[in-house]
Amino acid sequence: MKKVEIRAAGGVLYRLKSGDPIVLMIKRNGVWDLPKGKFEEGESVEECAIREVSEETGADGLQIGGYLTETYHEYKEGEAEVGKVTDWYAMMEKNGGRDTFTPQEEEGITELKWVPLYDAEKMVGYKNLQIVLERFREFIQGR
Fold first, then answer.
1. Taking CA atoms, which of 2, 55, 59, 97 is between 20 and 30 Å from 35?
2. Whole-number CA gyration radius for the chain
3. Residues 65-123: pLDDT tens digits?
4. Closest to 10 in 3D by CA, of 48, 64, 59, 65
5. C-alpha span between 79 and 14 (Å, rounded)
6. 127: how many CB neighbours lie within 10 A of its CB?
7. pLDDT mean across residues, the chain
8. Which of 124, 85, 86 minimizes the C-alpha distance to 5?
9. Backbone angle region of 125, left / alpha / beta, with phi > 0 → left and psi within -120 to 50 → alpha
10. Helix H or strand E encompassing 74
């Protein structure tokens, strides 16, 4: 089986509500997830993260607050075994945010939901995303 390595980037888009963080979760293919995606030619890691979070949620005016962690996971895609390395960032909206977002349906995203960080840690459908949210909690506590 052919082994392919790909790079991706994503983000934990958050707001502070009464001092507590809420994060924007996406439901992709029936599983609660965080927005991320593959690099395009010539992009920096940060540019990729902002573009992907923007495309998958419809959010605009994003800014990176800090680097969180790197994750790695493997999956099968056709005849290939894919190893995906993803860099994760904490992100906020520059303009204070808006209330309506648009899920990127062609990526299998059917729902977007702002949830308290504590709930997000229980909702995510993948173990490596629990690590991302733990790093995000450390990031928030260190501010």
1. 2
2. 15
3. 999 999 998 988 888 999 999 999 999 988 766 666 788 888 889 999 999 999 999 99
4. 48
5. 37
6. 9
7. 92
8. 85
9. alpha
10. strand 62-77
